[in-house]
Amino acid sequence: MSYRTIVVSPHFDDAALSVAGLLDALPRPAVFVTVFGGAPHADRAPSAWDRLCGFTSAAEAARERRAEDARACELLGVGQLVLDNPDAPANGVRLAGLAEFLTTHAGAATRVLIPMGIGNADHAVVRDQSLQALAAAGLPAPWIYADLPYASVVPQWGTEAAARALAEHPRAGAPIRALTCSIAPCRTPLVKGEVWVAKRRAVLAYASQLAPLATDFGEVLAVPGPLTHELVWAARF
Question: Rg (Cα) of the chain, in Å, rounded?
Fold first, then answer.
């Protein structure tokens, strides 16, 4: 089937954190495609992030996070699709299933959203391979979303100056400056009212992630706060 909206999410929770508010205005059917959703290698110890989230093994983390994602997708009324790539991939590895999914299930009328790669190198890999697949298939260029809560590092977050501030930030702006296609920021409304309520419910479904996120980013669920503003750029091939 062809989806009207496809949100490519590197990990479980990235899509909901970054664009669950914008999703309310996008056409259906819609789907979250999690790229790093596969079972971990048998000998992989839990990562530092897994341990912060309270997991005792990488397998437990993958299993529980997939269940959290299913709940969030149900709340948002979108499909859940999980690709079989283990987390923490080796550099240069082609991501299994990503190009195939996009070229099979995206059409000329599909809005594809992909991560910018702010704050996480794995996100940038997903972005680059998504761009390559869409361009090679002659599909429309996607929207590229600011990865939350990482993008909220700039003081201008939540204002019209956020896109420029991010592009100029020495660390957060690196993936933006590395893009080989042109982009232009789109106007996105503040996430508020019932749209915020729906986003908050979806984010709360990822319960294992909230304490570590709050440790790194403070009042992550505050209103107003880092998640009440979303930012996307329209790409052009």
Answer: 17
Residue 224 in tokens: 């107003």
H-type helices in the chain, by residue range?
14-23, 48-52, 58-76, 98-105, 121-136, 162-168, 174-177, 193-205, 207-217
Give the 3-state DSSP-derived string for 27-56, with helices as H, strands as E and coil as C: CCCEEEEECECCCCCCCCCCCHHHHHCCCC
Spatial separation of the C-alpha atoms in residues 34 and 210, rounded to whole Å: 19
Q: Quickly tell me which residue has 């789109």 as its tokens.
A: 186
**Residue 81 is inside which H or E element, if any?**
strand 79-82
* Tens-place pLDDT, residues 89-137: 656 689 999 999 999 999 999 999 999 999 999 999 999 999 999 999 9
Q: What is the pLDDT of residues 134-143, one digit of tens each?
A: 999 999 999 9
State how far the Cα of 143 lies from the Cα of 232, in Å rounded to an integer. Answer: 6
Tokens 């977050």 found at = 157
Pick the closest to residue 192 from 146, 229, 156, 155 (CA basis).
229
